[in-house]
Structures are given as C-alpha cells and as structure tokens.
Amino acid sequence: MKKTLLICAVAILALGLTGTVVACDKDAAGAKTADAKEGCCPKAAAKAAYDASLADSGCAKTAQKAANDAMATAAYKNTYAETGCSKSATKAAYAAVQEASGCSKSATSAAATAAKQAAYDTTYAESGCSKTAGAAADEAAKTATALLASNTEPASEKETAS
User: Fold this and answer.
1) Which listed residue, 60, 106, 116, 128, has the most CB atoms within 10 A of its CB?
2) Residue 118 to residues 59, 60, 114: CA-CA distances in angstroms?
C-alpha cells in the first residue's frame, strides 16, 4: 500500500514538475489539475508512473509494473466514480492494462492491486483501523482475481462447463 501511494505521489509530482497537462479533474476555477482521483487519464497516469519509477529504480521491469498499476488504479477510480460498482471498476482496470500490454497476467495483477488499494483506502477512511482495512483489501484482491479468472477462462472451458 505504501509503495503504491508513493508511486502515485511521485507520478503526480513528476507531472507537476514537468508541466505536463493531463485531462484530469477540474478545480473550482476550472483549471486542469494532475490528480490521481477519478477523472485522471489512465494512460497519462501510466506514463508518469513509468517515468518516475524508471528514474528511481533504473529497472524497466519495475517501471512497467508501476505503469500497469497506475493505469489500472486510474481506470478503476474513473469507473467506480461513474458506476459505483466495484466489479465494473475491476473489469475496466483489467481492460485498460490488457489493451495496453496485451498480457492478461499483468492485467489481472494490476486490476487486483487497484481493487485492493481502493478497498483499503475506503475501509481505512471509514474505520480508521489499518487491520480492518488490510483484511478488506485482501478480500477485495481475492474477489477481483476470482472475478477476472471467471471472465478470462478460454471459451472451450466455458462451453464444456455449460
């Protein structure tokens, strides 16, 4: 959780320092802001996370994981804000990373991470208890992984199960 928050913070900071304009939330004055809240473009979040992670770690593989997680998180938050449904948000997070990477394993991992982070943040905000939030996050990750596994099994397996 701390790593994800750190990556998001670095990504937001990097966007602010480079002067990159991202189509994110508008503040009261109508100006664009680079914010990790709903409305932020998943591709912009991914690029910022990749650049920040690559600069920090020097490892392209680590940077790609950070980019996938940031993209999934942004897609999750956008969809959840729009629909109020965690299942739809998880599927949107998966689809965003799957489309960008072409890898279902990476997409599943990133979507589960996004669901886990959202569950932790929400539960912690409501309860103020990190233990309760951790348990909710773990359950959300399991649920997301199971949801995605049931939606991504090969067609031949689905047909024989019917």
Assistant:
1) 116
2) 27, 26, 6
Give the residue numbers spanning the domain of 124.
39-151
Supply the pTM of this predicted model. Answer: 0.69
Q: What is the pLDDT of residues 56-111, one digit of tens each?
A: 999 999 999 999 999 999 999 999 999 999 999 999 999 999 999 999 999 999 99
Give how many domains the chain has, as a whole number. Answer: 1
Question: How confident is the model over 34-56, as pLDDT tens digits?
Answer: 334 445 789 999 999 999 999 99
Kindly state whether residue 6 falls inside one of the protein's structural domains. Answer: no
